[in-house]
TrEMBL record:
Transmembrane segments: none
Organism this protein belongs to: Nocardia macrotermitis
Pfam families: Uma2
InterPro entries xrefs: Nuclease_put_TT1808, Restrct_endonuc-II-like, Uma2
Top-level taxonomic group: Bacteria
Lineage: Bacteria, Bacillati, Actinomycetota, Actinomycetes, Mycobacteriales
Segments forming domain Putative restriction endonuclease: 20-185
Name the UniProt record assigns to this protein: Putative restriction endonuclease domain-containing protein
Length: 194
C-alpha cells in the first residue's frame, strides 16, 4: 500500500487556521468546518440524516414569520477560528437575501441552529458546537438524535445569566414549541418522503 503525501494546505499553521485563511482554501471536501482553528471533515451523509434535514428545513421555512427564513448546511462565522456548519438554521430574512457574503452567515444572523447527530459528529453536536453557539449568542439550539427510524429533538434556549443552553424539552412524534416562533412539526419521517 502506498501512502500519498499530505497536501500542504491540510497542515494548519502553528496558531491554527483563521476564518479568513479557511475561506481562501480551495478544493476542500464538502461540509468541511473550522472548529478551534482546525479543519473538521465529515463522513458521507446517510439517507436518514438528509431526510431529517430536508424535513426540518422545509417545515421551519413554511412556519417561520416573514422576517425569518430557514436554510440548510451553511457555515456560520462565530469567531476568528470558528466556522461550523449547522445542518439546519433559521436566520433573518435580511441575512438570507443578502448577496455578500454568499457562502456563510454571521452569528448575529442566526436565530436557531440545528444539528442532526450522526455517528462521526456525536461529540461535536452534543458538546463542542452547543458551547460555541451559546458563546456566540445564538439564542436557540436543537439537537436531533436518531431513535430507530424516528428523530428525537432536544430543544434548548440560551440562558443569558450563564451564557449556556437550558433544555426546554425532548420531543418525540411531534415537536411543538413556542420559541423561537410557534412551531409544530410532525417527527415521523416517511422513507423517501423527507
Amino acid at each position: 500500500m502506498t501512502v500519498e503525501p499530505v497536501p500542504d494546505w491540510l497542515i494548519p499553521p502553528p496558531e491554527g487556521f483563521t476564518v479568513d485563511a479557511f475561506l481562501r482554501l480551495s478544493n476542500l471536501p464538502r461540509h468541511t468546518e473550522l472548529i478551534d482553528g482546525s479543519l473538521i471533515f465529515v463522513s458521507p451523509q446517510v439517507k436518514w440524516h438528509r431526510q431529517v434535514i430536508d424535513h426540518l428545513r422545509r417545515e421551519l421555512d413554511l412556519q417561520a414569520p416573514e422576517n425569518l427564513r430557514a436554510d440548510r448546511e451553511m457555515a456560520v462565522k462565530l469567531g476568528v477560528r470558528q466556522m461550523p456548519e449547522p445542518d439546519v438554521l433559521v436566520v433573518t430574512s435580511e441575512a438570507f437575501d443578502r448577496a455578500d457574503p454568499d457562502s456563510y452567515y454571521f452569528a448575529e444572523d442566526v436565530v436557531l441552529a440545528v444539528e442532526v447527530v450522526s455517528k462521526d459528529s456525536q461529540e461535536r453536536d452534543r458538546d463542542t458546537k452547543p458551547g460555541k453557539y451559546a458563546k456566540a449568542g445564538i439564542r436557540h439550539y436543537w439537537r436531533v438524535e436518531r431513535n430507530g427510524a424516528a428523530p428525537v429533538v432536544y430543544a434548548y434556549e440560551l440562558d443569558p445569566a450563564t451564557n449556556s443552553y437550558a433544555l426546554l424539552g425532548i420531543f418525540h412524534d411531534i415537536l411543538k414549541i413556542p420559541v423561537p416562533f410557534p412551531v409544530e412539526i410532525g417527527l415521523v419521517i416517511e422513507q423517501g418522503r423527507g
